[in-house]
Every structure is written in C-alpha cells, then in structure tokens.
Design goal:
The complex is a heterodimer.
Chain A (H helix, E strand, L loop, with lengths): L2 H19 L4 H14 L5 H7 L2 H18 L3 H12 L4 H18 L2 H19 L4 H16 L6 H9 L5 H27 L7 H8 L10 H20 L7 H16 L1 H10 L2 H19 L2 H13 L3 H18 L2 H17 L6 H14 L8 H12 L6 H28 L2
Helix pairs in contact in A: 1-2, 1-15, 2-15, 3-15, 4-9, 4-12, 4-13, 4-14, 4-15, 5-6, 5-7, 6-7, 6-8, 6-10, 7-8, 7-20, 8-10, 8-19, 8-20, 9-18, 9-19, 12-13, 15-18, 16-17, 16-18, 17-18, 17-19, 17-21, 18-19, 19-21
Chain B lengths: L1 E4 L6 E7 L2 E7 L6 H13 L7 E6 L3 E6 L4 H10 L5 E4 L2
Antiparallel strand pairs in B: 1-6, 2-3, 3-5, 4-5
The chains are: A mainly alpha, B alpha+beta.
C-alpha cells in the first residue's frame, strides 16, 4: 500500500475512535473526517461527492418529513392509547402491545423515528399507571431494532445496503428478512413477559383511569390525518413497486414528502423541514466521504482479500464471519459507520469473483441491525431513547441495558445464523 | 404560593396532590370557548422537547387530567392565565 493509504487509515481510525468515545458530537467528527480526506488529497472533491449516497440521504429526509407531518395529527398517540385500552389497561399486556407497535412502526417508518414518538407516549401511560417506564423503554428499544431489520427502510444499515445494491429491492428485504424478524419477536415476547412481569403491577383504580381515556380526542386535525395517512400509504405502496416503476427508494420517499407538503401548505413545510434530523443527515455525508478515502486508496480491496483468505472463499464461513462480526461490532460501535465500511468491502469481494453475494448482504443486514441490541450504544434508536429517558429523569444505565440486550442479541444472532444457513447456504 | 381564580362558566378546576406531582382535573362545559384555549395550552406543553413536565390525559365530556412536576406548576398556571382560562393569578404569602 502507498503512503496515501496509510494516511487514510490513520484518519479513519482517529475519527472512528472519536465517534466511539462520544466526546465530541459524532456529526462534527464525521464531517471533519470527511473534510480531512479531501484536504489531505486522499480523495478530490469530485470523487468525494461521487461517494456520497444521496439515495440514503433522500430516503431518510423524505421519511422524516412524512412522519413529522403525520405526527402533528396525534395519530401515533391515538394508536398507543387505543392499544393500551385494548390491553385492558394491564401493564404487562400494554408492554407487549407497545413492543409490537414499535416493531411494526420501525419496519414501515424507520426505527429512529418510531422511538421518537413512542417514548413520550410511554412516559404518559406509565405515569398514569404509576409503574416504572424502564421495562417499556428497554423492550421498545429492542423491538425497534428487530422490527427495523424487516424492511429496507426500517433501520439505517438496511437503508444503506438497499441503496448500495440495486437488486435488493424493498420487496426483497421483506421477503428475506421479515420472516426471521417476526420469528425473533415471537421468541422475545414471552421473554419480555418473564423478565418484567413482577415489576409491572398497578391498582384497579389506575387501570380504570387508562380505560376511561378518550383516545378520539387525541386526533387534533382530521383533514390533515386523511391527507398524511393517504400519502404515507401511497409512499409505502411506492416502496413495494419502486423497482417496477424504475424509481429509487429516495425518489419515492421525497415524492411522498413533497406531495404531502403540497397538500398541507407553507406553514407545514417550515415546521417539517425544521424537524428533519440534519445532524443525522450530515453524519452520513461525513461517513461516506471518510470511507471513500479507504476505497480510493485500495484499503477496502485489501480488507476484502484478507477476508476471502481467512474463510478460503467458503460461502458458509464467509457469511457467518460477516454476520457475527457485524453483530458483535454493531453492539459496541455505532452500526452505521461499521456498515458504511463493510458495504464496499463486500462489493470488492464481488469484483474479485466471489460467487453469490446475496447471503453476504443478508448476513450483514441481520448482523448489523440485530447487533444494535447488544448495548446501549449499538444503534441510533438506542441512543435517542436513552437520551430522551435521561433528560426526563429516567437514565438507562449502560450495564442495565447490557444485561438484557446482550443475551437477547446473541440469541437473535444465533437464530439469524440458522436462518441464513438453511435458507441460502445449504446444499 | 400561587393563588388563582377561574370563571366556572369557562371551566372548572380541581387540584390535588399526586405523589410528588400536582394534579389538575379540568372540566370544560359544552360550548365553552375554554375548550379551544385548553387545547392550545396542551399543544404548548406537548410541542416542547420536555416530555414529562406536564402530562395531559383526555377523558370524555371535555375533561382533562393534567399531571405536572412541581417545578412546572407556575409555568402551567401562567399558560392558563395567558389563554384567559383564569380570571386572576397572584403570588400570596
């Protein structure tokens, strides 16, 4: 490798270390890393821009706009309160209901946004029942990562993989990942009940106070509700059809977002754009440029060669290596930068003549998404929930989450390994 | 402490303790202009980034249960006053 490659590795490792340390905001660090790659001449500006995946950014921004406008109608609170009433006001059943809503919401909206809407309503319900919000928060974080695994838009790693590999459509993600995500949730739900049943006790009077709530009053703007749910439905339909329509998923999301803003007017536009998580968008921009330095200098190609050498090119060994490496690494590093590095490596393995890449992509998606449950810092949804909970006086301790999340993550990675083996590798 | 007065034609307020928090049961009569203003108060507290400062629970017949942290007691009453849902609000010894 040339000197440029060593400089690129040094910049990458320093920036990665700073992201993990969380001493400085990850967006600032990633953007500085990206700028350094250009300033040090490792990539020129033209190449840097070329490496920024605008499909990932457009998909994220489009969904954030749609969900922000939809949330204004109160529909997410309505769904949560309705579910709590359907659960008879029983805390254990509410915990299950909110976990399932979080999982499904994460699959079709994205897990970061879903957590943003579920945490406040969780505080509201648990305060009313006078039970600890902690079991609810922890199970929702875990469910958000499992639910997000099921679709292309569910979790940032999947958005990035789907964007980088055009053959992996929205339908392909559901067809390949939703069955195992559903199976993992089915295994997790009884475990959630077993873990938390003793902590979730309330009085008949408090249960009644939930049952008497009038959830219809939570819908604040019915015309807007009709518009936003129609556009959300059309957008999800668009995701199912995006390959047949020859459209990228970002085009579908942005078309939905700006159609909704066209229907709602200028005031909604300013509010919705102000709610887009620009720090997340710029974090991605910085990462794409940072990783481009490793691609352009041949570091990623070298890593791919080493990975193939290590596994002898055996599909089972390579898939399992990617799945478990992704799971363990994503538990303790942010899974977004990890996946940003792994995607070009797997592409490079394809360029080197490695056979069928599809099991590797699903292994990466499963490992990175499910691995996010391994620790509190494993995924963006975890950090956002922990941040909200801490601000409200209910800090989720790292070890407290680790004790629950890590064993469950290992269980899900084991289930995913069996699934990948029997579905893609046997025979 | 804070003392307040309200117009029962606009709304009815009952205040109690709820562990360390304050709890208000606010009932708004049918046709009262207080309903729209009360919704603005709710929106004000739910639109900020503090999710547990003031919690609103909505019941049939325009009844609101509001559970709020003690440190937000004055903020909440001031917001009611601002929306003309209180006749008076004053500090007393």
């Amino acid at each position: 490798m040339e000197m440029q490659a060593y400089i690129a590795i040094a910049v990458f490792l320093v920036i990665y270390g700073l992201i993990i340390s969380e001493k400085i905001h990850r967006t600032i660090v990633a953007m500085i890393g990206g700028v350094l790659m250009v300033v040090l001449g490792i990539v020129d500006q033209e190449s840097a821009l070329h490496h920024i995946d605008f499909n990932t950014l457009g998909l994220l921004a489009g969904m954030m706009i749609i969900v922000t406008v939809t949330a204004e109608t109160g529909v997410f609170k309505y769904v949560a309160v309705r579910a709590a009433k359907k659960a008879g006001g029983n805390p254990v059943r509410i915990l299950i209901a909110l976990s399932l809503i979080t999982a499904v919401g994460s699959a079709f909206l994205d897990n970061v946004t879903t957590i943003l809407f579920m945490v406040p309503v969780t505080f509201s319900i648990t305060r009313q029942l006078k039970v600890s919000p902690m079991p609810f928060l922890i199970t929702q974080i875990i469910s958000s990562n499992v639910g997000g695994t099921a679709t292309l838009i569910g979790d940032p790693p999947n958005i990035m993989i789907g964007s980088a590999v055009k053959e992996l459509t929205f339908t392909a993600f559901i067809y390949n990942l939703a069955p195992i995500a559903a199976a993992i949730m089915l295994v997790y739900i009884p475990l959630f009940i077993w873990m938390y049943r003793k902590q979730l006790r309330t009085t008949p009077e408090l249960t009644r106070s939930i049952m008497e709530l009038d959830e219809k009053e939570l819908i604040t703007d019915r015309p807007l509700l009709v518009k936003s749910l129609s556009v959300l439905g059309l957008t999800i339909l668009g995701f199912f059809l995006h390959q047949a329509l020859h459209l990228e998923s970002a085009t579908v999301a942005l078309a939905g977002a700006f159609l909704l803003l066209l229907l709602t007017g200028e005031h909604s536009m300013e509010h919705a754009l102000s709610k887009v998580e620009w720090p997340t968008i710029f974090f991605f921009v910085g990462l794409f440029v940072l990783v481009s330095g490793l691609i352009e200098t041949g570091v990623i190609a070298e890593l791919a060669v080493r990975a193939i050498e290590m596994t002898g090119g055996d599909p089972v060994a390579t898939s399992m290596l990617i799945l478990w490496l992704s799971a363990i690494a994503s538990a303790f590093l942010d899974n977004i930068p990890f996946v940003a590095t792994m995607i070009p490596m797997i592409q490079e393995m394809g360029n080197m003549g490695y056979g069928n890449l599809e099991p590797l992509w699903w292994s990466l998606a499963l490992g990175a998404c499910l691995g996010g449950n391994g620790s509190l810092i494993g995924a963006s949804a975890n950090l956002i929930a922990a941040g909200l909970a801490g601000k409200e006086g209910h800090p989720i301790k790292f070890v407290q989450f680790l004790k629950v999340g890590f064993p469950l993550m290992i269980l899900s990675a084991a289930m995913a390994s069996v699934y990948v083996y029997f579905r893609y590798l046997i025979g | 402490m804070l003392k307040y007065e309200f117009d029962p034609r606009i709304l009815d307020i009952r205040e109690s303790e709820n562990e360390n928090d304050a709890e208000f049961l606010i009932r708004i009569p049918d046709g009262s202009p207080g309903l729209a203003e009360m919704r603005k108060v709710q929106h004000h507290f739910e639109d900020d980034n503090d999710y547990t400062d003031v919690l609103f629970y909505l019941y049939p017949n325009h009844e609101f249960k509001v559970i709020l942290q003690r440190e937000h007691y004055a903020d909440f009453l001031a917001e009611l006053m601002k929306r003309k849902l209180l006749r008076s609000l004053e500090w007393t010894d």
